[in-house]
Write a structure and sequence with these properties.
The structure holds three protein chains of three kinds. Chain B contains nine helices and nine strands. Chain B is an alpha/beta fold. By secondary structure, chain C is mainly alpha-helical. The chains are: A mainly alpha, B alpha/beta, C mainly alpha. At the A-C interface, helix 4 and helix 5 of A face helix 6, helix 7 and helix 8 of C.
Chain lengths: 227, 233, 226
């Protein structure tokens, strides 16, 4: 087993241990006054969102670095972190939806954060679909990187405009009771944030390995066909 | 300083090397025939020389400068697989457009002149989409020569040309050579190319297998270079 | 050669080529009218509530029809490998890009300006009451659409399923601009002028245009040459 594989397994193990501990602690917490047990979903909803944001920053950095250096390992990092970010964003949307269903009785509510997350999800998905549609590796990496830059710039603009929209058309607002967050609850939130990031790191590394293998297959295929 | 210099050029598609350490040069007034099997890398190399894509390693110099520089582009002409003229415009409109893009002092006059020289003067106001194939190809040639480039890069220019177009192109190329222009031409049509060529380069699997002057025996037996340096024809 | 002059030459070329066949504008116009008609079945045009959302409907029509025009932008260059000739010419990539954006801008604007009176008639809204403010919003919104559309047209020029990919990529990016345009237009077509509550949208729309025009100009050379 190579060093990289060992790191992946070690990280995965650590993440699992941490996650198990966190879930145990979270389950033992008393329910929140107004919202009951479902409030605990915030311990997942916020960390996955934060992790997805980190993933998108990573992806942008990787894209820019690829455009500058033309080194494909940055392209692999960009696609790996975007895919992982997509999954975590989906988790964010699903947890938000579940929460909305329990509290408001609706599966979806157009609040600013959920809507922004949905738009981001669409942008990530667009990135991945664009990659799928381009055959040639250098063109694929270059065009995907450029789209990634456009998409990343859009994210704050989208958030601001939806917030402006919502101040004019107020709708349900979630998670307003941030003020009364006890200290040890914040600690658990932080720990779960850490666990989620580790999980994301593991998934990214696994995806990177897959991407390396794919590139090798592609070039072998090209060589076989060319001659 | 040669007109065209290719120094240690590599081109990768993903991890696959389409061109490997290609070194070539063509001096002013010379005509380099680039030959090789399909997939050897001729088109890839020509497009890098023309500045359409960047090499993974190494560099190309046209008159000592990179091909992408504006001043260099003004002195280069390219004919690729497509005719690169607009179907919805007339022959005259097309040439005038390119004349303007190349900053010619009198685009319309240059356009008319080249329509004359390629035998298209009568159909100058016809839309390109109504042209026959031979006419389209002659217009493509006119477009490439219009701005009097010092270096001409041609990708299989004789392929699928009719006799009249072949004659026009050969005449124009010979005149250009006599005027000291440099030509790099990839080709399958060995006979036509080897008549004009002063030098020959054989590309095999992305590498230069042979590069030297064109000898009389090559012109007499076009398959000679392949037989001697390549792998099959 | 003068940069502005080159932009003009490229724009003129695109416009002349398109106006000679009118393929894209005719298709876009027909499409716009069909959507307006379809919307009339989904939303009762005479109801008060429809008037509130009329501005939003209008921009959906503009966005969908506009993409038909934008699709042609770089696709037209593919036909005979004309893109090669343009890239080989001593024209800065930025000039090439701006020329195409300008041409697309005017073509989409033409489709929109023809759709507006039809819209006014179908949905019975006094769209001319704040005419110049409406024109300002249309001008700004269309510029955003033209810039993003032209860049992505270049990005998708030779990939599979181009006609599907282009709208799929454009619309999420356009969301802030479309939102702003919709908000402003909804008020303007029923006669409400742009006031202090709305002006933030106008600023956002302008900001969007400026930011993305700048980013596109920076990146266009990489898109075209790699």
């Amino acid at each position: 087993m190579s060093t990289r594989d060992k790191i992946i397994y070690a990280l995965a193990l650590a993440a699992m241990v941490l996650l198990t501990r966190n879930i145990y602690l979270i389950a033992r917490l008393p329910g929140e006054l107004q919202q009951g047990a479902i409030f605990k979903i915030i311990f997942f909803h916020v960390p996955v969102a934060a992790t997805a944001m980190f993933a998108s920053v990573f992806s942008l950095a990787a894209s820019v670095l690829f455009l500058i250096t033309k080194n494909f390992k940055y392209d692999a990092l960009a696609v790996a972190s975007t895919e992982v970010g997509l999954a975590f964003l989906a988790a964010n949307l699903v947890t938000g939806s579940i929460w909305a269903r329990v509290i408001w009785g609706v599966w979806w509510a157009w609040d600013v954060r959920l809507t922004s997350a949905l738009v981001c999800w669409l942008l990530y998905a667009g990135y991945l679909i664009l990659r799928q549609a381009i055959e040639e590796p250098t063109q694929r990496a270059t065009f995907a990187a450029i789209f990634s830059i456009f998409a990343f710039i859009d994210v704050p603009i989208v958030y601001l405009s939806i917030r402006l929209f919502r101040t004019q058309h107020p709708g349900p607002v979630f998670f307003t009771s941030q003020g009364s967050f006890p200290h040890d609850w914040s600690m658990i939130l932080m720990w779960n944030m850490f666990a989620m990031m580790m999980l994301a790191a593991v998934l990214t590394l696994v995806r990177l390995r897959e991407e390396d293998a794919q590139r090798e297959i592609d070039s072998l295929r090209r060589m076989a066909h060319a001659f | 300083m040669s007109a065209v210099e290719v120094e240690g050029v590599w081109k990768f598609y993903g991890d696959f090397p389409a061109l490997r350490d290609v070194r070539l040069e063509a001096g002013a007034g010379s005509c380099l025939a680039l030959i090789g099997r399909n997939g050897a890398g001729k088109t890839t190399l020509l497009r890098i020389m023309a500045g359409f894509s960047r090499p993974g390693r190494g560099q190309v110099r046209i008159f000592g400068s990179p091909p992408r520089e504006t001043s260099t582009r003004r002195r280069m002409g390219f004919i690729g697989h497509g005719i690169a003229v607009y179907d919805e415009l007339s022959a005259l409109e097309n040439l005038t457009l390119f004349g303007r893009l190349y900053g010619l002092p009198d685009p319309r006059r240059s356009a008319l002149e080249w329509l004359e020289r390629t035998g298209l003067a009568r159909v100058r106001d016809g839309l390109v989409r109504e042209f026959s194939r031979g006419m389209r190809q002659r217009l493509a040639v006119a477009r490439a020569f219009l701005h009097d480039p010092g270096v001409l890069l041609l990708d299989e220019p004789f392929t699928a040309l009719d006799d009249r177009a072949i004659a026009v192109l050969q005449r124009l190329l010979a005149e250009a050579l006599a005027a000291g222009k440099t030509i790099v031409m990839s080709t399958h049509q060995l006979r036509e190319a080897l008549e004009l060529a002063s030098h020959v380069a054989l590309l095999n699997r992305g590498q230069v297998a042979f590069h030297g002057p064109r000898t009389p025996e090559m012109a007499a037996d076009p398959g000679l270079v392949y037989a001697r340096y390549g792998e099959g024809g | 050669m003068n940069f502005a002059r080159l932009v003009f030459i490229v724009a003129a070329k695109d416009l002349r080529a398109e106006l000679r066949t009118k393929e894209a504008v005719n298709a876009a116009l027909a499409f716009a009218l069909v959507i307006l008609l379809l919307f009339s079945f989904a939303f009762d045009p005479s109801a008060e509530t429809t008037r509130d959302i009329a501005g939003g409907l209008l921009w959906i029509v503009f966005a969908f029809a506009g993409v038909l025009v934008l699709n042609r932008s770089f696709a037209r260059e593919l036909a005979n490998d004309c893109l090669d000739a343009l890239i080989a010419a001593p024209v800065p990539a930025a000039a090439l890009f701006l020329g195409k954006v300008l041409a697309n801008y005017f073509l989409v604007l033409a489709v929109e300006l023809v759709s507006l009176p039809v819209f006014g008639v179908f949905y019975n809204v006094p769209w001319t009451s704040r005419f110049w403010q409406l024109m300002l919003v249309v001008a700004l919104g269309t510029w955003g659409l033209a810039v993003i559309g032209t860049v992505f047209s270049a990005l998708t020029v030779n990939i599979r399923l181009r006609e599907v990919m282009l709208p799929l990529l454009i619309y999420p990016i356009m969301i802030p601009a479309l939102m702003g345009a919709m908000q402003l237009t909804s008020d303007l077509v029923v006669g409400k002028p742009i006031g202090p509550e709305n002006v933030a949208w106008l600023k956002m729309l302008a900001g969007f245009d400026v930011i993305y025009t700048a980013v596109s100009l920076l990146l266009v050379e990489t898109v075209l040459v790699g």
